[in-house]
């Protein structure tokens, strides 16, 4: 890859938004410096209290539950749009229906037709969606609505970074990942992640032909130690290089879990 400025589309997780993820990745943005332009995109789906807390939000403690959802900065009733929790889709319990993914794909299509990106970086639900975009740009005809005047809106990406990612299903995504996709993809897994457990991440890894898998000792977060920041930036500069993996230790903004040992967020991903 050339040494020119690299433009990366960054996709936040469920119940976050672009401002929240940008804040959490501040150290990574500083590490990448002037070599990169990180473009943080907001998901179109605005989450309501019922999406975050279930049917009885009045019986829940909002700060605690939003922390469990990985978005302690947000408030379900906040009037500040910078803190509004968002999602790329909402799935049913069986993960067979992904409400809202069509709107998210059209939003990204319109962004891609206006400017060029070298790659995509996503966390959690955003990582799953990043892989969808990377795979779809290889065969955009699989979802005709993604085309612009019958043509792809953007060339295939040079890389994808999926942190705590997973393989979404449903009638739109299944064909996109069948049998696999070939965009170079870095899969980052937290060994103690209870929101997106390793088995679920492996489902995405299994359909990724050109992959690199690295693990950290932590949970559901983007590792932020200096060694990890350098590694992520170097990967995005040259995804084909044989970079040494960071040390096993990691730090970041972990996602607390509920009393039953599972995050509330897992229900909606």
From TrEMBL:
Domain Serine hydrolase, residue spans: 5-230
A Gene Ontology cellular-component term: nucleus
Gene3D superfamilies for the chain: alpha/beta hydrolase
Signal peptide: none
Keywords: Hydrolase
GO MF entries: hydrolase activity
Domain of life: Eukaryota
The protein's name in its UniProt record: Serine hydrolase domain-containing protein
UniProt organism field: Amanita thiersii Skay4041
């Amino acid at each position: 890859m050339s040494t020119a400025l690299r433009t990366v589309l960054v996709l936040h997780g469920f119940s976050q938004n672009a401002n929240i993820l940008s804040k959490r990745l501040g150290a990574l943005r500083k590490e990448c410096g002037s070599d990169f332009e990180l473009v943080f995109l907001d998901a179109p789906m605005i989450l309501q209290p019922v999406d975050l807390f279930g049917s009885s939000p009045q019986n829940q403690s909002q700060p605690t539950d939003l922390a469990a959802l990985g978005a302690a900065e947000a408030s379900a009733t906040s009037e500040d749009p910078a803190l509004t929790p968002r999602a790329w889709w909402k799935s049913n319990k069986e993960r067979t229906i992904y409400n809202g993914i069509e709107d998210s794909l059209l939003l990204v299509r319109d962004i891609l037709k206006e400017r060029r990106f070298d790659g995509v970086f996503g966390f959690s639900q955003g990582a799953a969606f990043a892989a969808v975009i990377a795979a779809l740009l290889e065969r955009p005809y699989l979802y005709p609505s993604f085309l612009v005047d019958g043509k792809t809106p953007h060339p295939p990406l040079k890389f994808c970074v999926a942190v705590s990612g997973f393989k979404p299903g449903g009638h739109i995504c299944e064909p996109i990942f069948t049998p696999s996709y070939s965009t170079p993809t870095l899969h980052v897994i937290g060994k103690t992640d209870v929101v997106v457990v390793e088995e679920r991440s492996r489902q995405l890894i299994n359909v990724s032909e050109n992959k690199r898998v690295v693990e950290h000792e932590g949970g559901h977060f983007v590792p932020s130690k200096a060694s990890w920041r350098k590694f992520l930036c170097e990967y995005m500069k040259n995804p084909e290089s044989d970079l040494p993996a960071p040390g096993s230790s990691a730090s970041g903004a972990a996602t607390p879990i509920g009393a039953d040992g599972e995050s509330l967020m897992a229900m909606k991903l």
